[in-house]
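Lecture notes, part 5. Sequence design as translation. It can be helpful to think of inverse folding as translation between two languages: the language of shapes and the language of residues. The source text, in structure tokens, appears below.
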């Protein structure tokens, strides 16, 4: 048998042969269990990143792992030129959960948003209506393919890739700014219920309702990017919901990915019946989209979230995390400004002058994996199954690391 390579050996190969479009922390992960990850030498890290809000059931969840293994032994892929059972049943279950009526499957968040971009434009095209402008928000994140990227509200991500016409960015939370741009050429507004990558920034009260009213008034569509906020992350099933029921702001379409497959790649766009004919055969597709392996993963995630009452628990644990982070911010006022977020998508906000990205390596070294959110947000999106004890353990590590910075800055 070949000798297992060490972290140092693997990192040397990575440095030589991995494309450097990311700057990963210098650890090589090999295994996970619940909210813990282990590197190739067996060193443990507490996971407050969950693969960027993806691994909702934690790592190596036995029900998810066995569902995927069993499906792999039955049927992995067959294409969309034939129906498959898992795909049909997942569409049914997601429509039942959302009150929407059509599901289109793909493989990632950017693909789901790319589909939504094409959906809203082609909907009006098919009606002979010339409107095509899309209003999106500064500081938003919608993905890296050209349509999704054009809607993304961070200019430096778009730089150098050419322009896609007809997208207007306005300030998140500012209804007057949206109203000022709401002319008869607007096809849709795309919004996140909480800006995730932007730094766990919740929509201000009344903002989403106001968008709905403006869109109704001007005949535009309102679509939600629920890639990060969906599937229970906020302590409710989806961000557009304001309560346990479907009540809330009715979307014309939503995009899902990240937590949908619990770690297995899958994306989805869900639409109302009114939009069912906007993308007829030949206008959009995906070879891998909706394959039975990905769909069985998503169906298992849905079932486990339901069976184990995970959404209500997220709400409770989110409040606990919020309280603990607020205490850290209060105790370390030279480093922290406060905390924000909803459910288990939260950020500890650093003082002006600190850069979240620069602090992440210190946190990794101390044993907790955290994300950046915006320039100054330490974003935390642990698995939805994280325990209260693990939340305390992680926040304590963060507190200790930040305390050393506080000591240095005084
Ligand atoms: C991560 C993310 C995306 C992009 O998803 P990918 O699967 O990386 O393509 C899009 N929108 C939001 C809100 C996200 O958080």
């Amino acid at each position: 048998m070949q000798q297992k390579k060490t972290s140092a050996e693997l990192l040397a190969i990575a440095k030589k042969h991995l494309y450097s479009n990311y700057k990963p922390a210098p650890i090589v992960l090999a295994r996970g269990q619940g909210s813990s990850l282990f590197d190739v030498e067996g060193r443990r890290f507490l996971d407050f990143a969950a693969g960027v809000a993806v691994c909702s059931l934690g790592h190596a969840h036995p029900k998810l792992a066995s569902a995927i293994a069993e499906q792999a032994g039955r049927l992995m892929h067959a294409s969309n030129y034939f129906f498959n059972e898992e795909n049909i049943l997942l569409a049914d279950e997601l429509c039942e959960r959302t009150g929407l009526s059509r599901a289109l499957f793909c493989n990632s968040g950017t693909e789901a948003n790319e589909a939504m971009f094409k959906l809203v434009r082609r909907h009006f095209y098919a009606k002979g209506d010339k409107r095509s402008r899309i209003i999106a928000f500064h500081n938003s994140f919608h993905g890296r393919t050209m349509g999704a990227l054009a809607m993304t509200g961070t200019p430096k991500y778009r730089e150098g890739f050419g322009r896609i016409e007809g997208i207007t960015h306005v300030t998140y939370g500012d209804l007057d700014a949206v109203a000022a741009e709401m002319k008869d050429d607007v096809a849709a507004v795309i919004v996140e219920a909480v800006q995730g990558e932007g730094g766990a920034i919740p929509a201000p009260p009344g903002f989403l309702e106001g968008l709905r009213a403006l869109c109704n008034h001007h005949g535009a569509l309102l679509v939600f990017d629920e890639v990060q906020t969906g599937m229970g992350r906020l302590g409710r099933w989806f961000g557009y919901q304001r309560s346990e029921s479907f009540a809330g702001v009715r979307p014309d379409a939503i995009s899902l990915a990240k937590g949908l497959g619990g770690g297995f790649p899958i994306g989805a766009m869900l639409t109302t019946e009114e939009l069912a004919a906007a993308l007829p055969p030949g206008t959009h597709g995906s070879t891998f989209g909706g394959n039975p392996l990905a769909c069985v993963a998503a169906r298992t995630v849905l079932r486990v979230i339901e069976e184990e009452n995970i959404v209500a628990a997220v709400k409770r644990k989110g409040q606990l995390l919020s309280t603990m982070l607020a205490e850290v911010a209060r105790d370390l006022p030279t480093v922290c400004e406060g905390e924000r977020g909803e459910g288990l998508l939260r950020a500890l906000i650093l003082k002006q002058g600190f850069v979240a990205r620069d602090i992440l390596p210190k946190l990794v070294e101390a044993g907790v994996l955290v994300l950046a959110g915006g320039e100054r947000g330490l974003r935390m999106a642990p698995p939805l199954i994280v325990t209260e004890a693990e939340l305390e353990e992680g926040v304590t590590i963060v507190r200790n690391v930040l305390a050393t910075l506080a000591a240095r800055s005084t």
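The translated text above is only one of many valid answers, since several sequences can fold into similar shapes. Residues 310-331 form the longest helix (22 residues).
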